[in-house]
Amino acid sequence: MAERPKLVLAMRRDIVDLVLPPALRARLDTLADVHPLLVTDASDPAADAAFADAEILLTGWGAPEVDAALLARLPKLGAVVHAAGTVKHHVHPVVWERGIGVSSAADANAGPVVDFTMATIVLAARRTLGAAADYHRGVQPSYPERRGADGAVVGVIGASRIGRGVLARLASAAADFEVLLADPYVSADEAARLGARLVDLDELCAGSHIVTVHAPDLPETRHLLDARRLGLLRDGAAVVNTARGRLVDTEALARACETGRLDAYLDVTDPEPLPEGHVLHRLRNVLLTPHIAGCQGTEVARLGAYAVDEVARFAAGQPLLGAVRVEDLARIA
């Protein structure tokens, strides 16, 4: 039997049992020789003994930055397997330069985000926040005043992994949605195959009842929805953001929501969290949630299961299913 690769876990202590519950941890132990030290602080000299022989670094939320300095302490490293979404904030390009494989469990995290976004789109189509606020005041809407989802125009910004998942769900939804897509990397033919009509971002904003954001957080996408573009949205439109807060100008959106012109469903904000007392906390037409669209609670084990499968592939000499390329860093969330 081939020798098991040596593996080090590096993530926050409070999540390791969620990422790797007993059954998953037992399977991991059959695939790799897991060092007993959980690395929560890479500056701890005690980590050196674990790093010296590590062939796999299995990371999660709170992982250390894997840069040239850390690689100097990981001379045998062959793969960084991330049991979470993006790797762009902790895995430096030098890792790829050294021929080390990098994998992310972003595919496993996408499903819950798509579910959350779709639920929010349906709530937005029905103008749920306003109806709920009125109901709290004892106001019952008449049937002509009630909104349904059929005929709602949904504008999807970004055919990313999650954006494509949302497009697929919109296409198969019971509601008769019309779907617009803005993405500079997608052709009109590809958009049509995804069930959407390709438009530029201004046309998307002007034509949509609901705008849902799924673009990556890059310098050029900061405030993609700025005051001007928010001004293009029709009265009563809704902004849904489960991507990154910096894609939307928070203060411009707050002003539009404060007048009652727009609704907002925000799982992410800029800054995050929003300061106590910010106007968005008190508006009847705004739903704020604390970045919970991705895997939560028992769902976090999906990330661990994906990562353990990647360890199995690495140990068997197979390609990593969730492999991230260095050239992807400029376009991923």
Outline the structure in words.
It holds the Pfam family 2-Hacid_dh_C. This is Hydroxyacid dehydrogenase. The model has no long low-confidence stretch (mean pLDDT about 95). The protein has 2 domains: about 5-105 and about 295-330, NAD(P)-binding Rossmann-like Domain (Rossmann fold), CATH 3.40.50; about 110-290, Rossmann fold, CATH 3.40.50.720. Strands 8-7-6-9-10-11-12 form a 7-stranded parallel beta sheet, with helices on both faces. It has a 5-stranded parallel beta sheet with strand order 2-1-3-4-5, sandwiched between helices. The two termini are about 40 Å apart. The protein is elongated. The chain is an alpha/beta fold and about 325 residues long. It has helices spanning about 15-20, 20-30, 45-55, 70, 95, 105-125, 130-135, 160-170, 190-195, 200-205, 225-230, 250-260, 300-315; strands spanning about 5-10, 35-40, 55-60, 80, 100-105, 155, 180, 195-200, 210-215, 240, 265, 285-290. The chain contains 13 helices and 12 strands.
Name the CATH homologous superfamily of the largest domain. NAD(P)-binding Rossmann-like Domain
Please report the first level of CATH classification, the CATH class of the largest domain: Alpha Beta
Radius of gyration: 22 Å
Average predicted confidence as pLDDT: 96
The number of E-state strands comes to 12
CATH architecture of the largest domain: 3-Layer(aba) Sandwich
Q: Which H/E pattern describes the elements?
A: EHHEHEHEHEHHEHEHEHEHEHEEH
Beta-strand content bin:
15-25%
Number of helices: 13
- Strand numbers in spatial order across the main sheet: 8-7-6-9-10-11-12
Described by the principal axes of the CA atoms, the overall outline is elongated
Low-confidence regions: none
Q: Which fold name corresponds to the CATH topology of the largest domain?
A: Rossmann fold
Largest sheet: 7 strands, parallel
Helix content: 25-40%
End-to-end separation: 40 Å
Q: Which structural class best describes the helix and strand composition? A: alpha/beta
How many structural domains?
A: 2
